[in-house]
Amino acid sequence: MLRGTGSMMRVACVVVAVLMLTMSAFAVPNTRNRDEIPDQYKWNLSDIYANWEEWEAGLQEMQTKMAEFAELQGTLAESPENVLRAYQINDELGVIAFRVFRYPQLMLDTDTRNNDVSARLQQVSIAFYHFNVATAWFTPEVLAIPWETMEQWLNDNPEFADYRFTIEDTYRQQEHVLDEQGEQLLSFGSQFTGSPGNIYQQLSTSDIVYPEVVLADGDTVTASYGQYSAVLGTNRNQADRSLFSREFYGVYQQNINTYASIYASILQRDWFLAQARNYPTTLHADLDGNNIPVEVYENLVSTVYEGVAPLQRYHELRARMMELDSYHPYDGRIPLVEFDEEYPFDEVTEMIIESVEVFGEEYQNQLREALEGGWIDVYENDGKRSGAYSAGVYGVHPYMLLNYTDTLEDLFTLQHELGHTMHTVLSYGNQPFANAHYTIFVAEVASTLNEALLLDYMLERTEDPEERIALLQHMIDSIVGTFYTQVLFADFERRAHVLVEEGQPITSDVLNATYMELLQHYYGDSMEIDDYYEATWSRIGHFFRSPYYVYQYATCYASSAKILQDITTGSRRERRAAVERYLDLLKSGGSDYPMEQLRAAGVDLSNPEVIQAVVDQLDTLVGQLEEEINRL
Question: Which of 178, 181, 23, 161 lies closest to 84 in space, CA to CA?
Answer without folding.
Answer: 161
